[in-house]
Design goal:
Elements (H helix, E strand, L loop, with lengths): L1 H15 L1 H10 L3 E6 L4 E6 L4 H4 L5 H6 L15 E4 L3 E5 L8 E5 L12 H10 L3 E6 L12 E6 L4 H8 L3 E7 L2 E6 L7 E5 L2 H18 L8 E8 L2 E8 L6 H4 L12 H4 L2 E4 L2 H6 L2 H11 L3 H11 L1
Parallel strand pairs: 2-13
Antiparallel strand pairs: 1-2, 3-4, 4-5, 5-7, 6-7, 6-11, 8-9, 9-10, 10-12, 11-12
Helix pairs in contact: 1-2, 5-7
The structure holds zinc ion.
Length: 310
Amino acid sequence: MYSRKISSLFSTQLREWELAKLNYRQLENVKSREFDFGYFKVFVQFNPGRIRSSSAKVDEKSIGERPCFLCEKNRPSEQRGVSFEERLTILVNPFPIFRRHLTIPSELHIDQRIKNNFDTMLALAEALPSFIIFYNGPQCGASAPDHFHFQAGNSGFMPLEKDFQDGNLTTLFSSKEGVEIWQWKGYQRGIITLRGNDRKKLVPVFNHFLEMFSEVQPDRTEPMLNILADYYDESWTIHIIPRKKHRPSQFFAEGNSQLLISPAAVDLGGVMITPREEDFEKITRTDLEDIFSQVCFNDNEIAGFLIELV
Ligand SMILES: [Zn+2]
């Protein structure tokens, strides 16, 4: 039901909304580089339209001073939405990374928090099976940390999805009560993957992780993380990416050593976004490894979380 509504939303918006039409057309010519790490690949996408998101000031003062672009009253007049469970509105993202890119804000202006919203994320994934749903924590890439929202992009675009399905980098760490917990090895960025066909059983496992991780980062309003969730073969796959840092040192460097990269769910899913062409041209495989190691936990640290989780 939603699939049809969303595809009709796209065709209407791309016909009637000049900004969206232009930006989706430009995406067809976007430049991309491929970095081969052996068992997996990482793509770098040069996407100038994302400068606003990558360089967004997300400190409390800057956020408090700007009109919230996810609140209905401040949205462009051409933007249309589809209501989801009378709580969220599904919108076409006018600054796309994906060929089909959605922003899914809450109807209310409430803080970005995953606690008590994870179940809704699973509901969305099931309702939109041709999309992968993602969540960027308030200090991990959400450019509106004061307005709760998810995003979604068409399935199959991020290498992470295929890398999980191929199974070369993952092993089943535990399987009980219908929830599988998968461990990654050698993926440069620590990820915990849950898979199961029962929402009611996945939610408490996620909540347990969140509580445990809150104790690791007690000073944060929410422990730092990105989450990606999709639904296929009647099961959910949820990739949890705990974070150490929001932005790598390269982001704050000056002159030639600066790389304006602000990693969020899509970047860690294997499509790094560079809004500036100079960064796109000069970035190396070593830079990518270094950025992953700064912002993510390593395999040993993740193994410690897994032991506590089961
Ligand atoms: Zn708002």
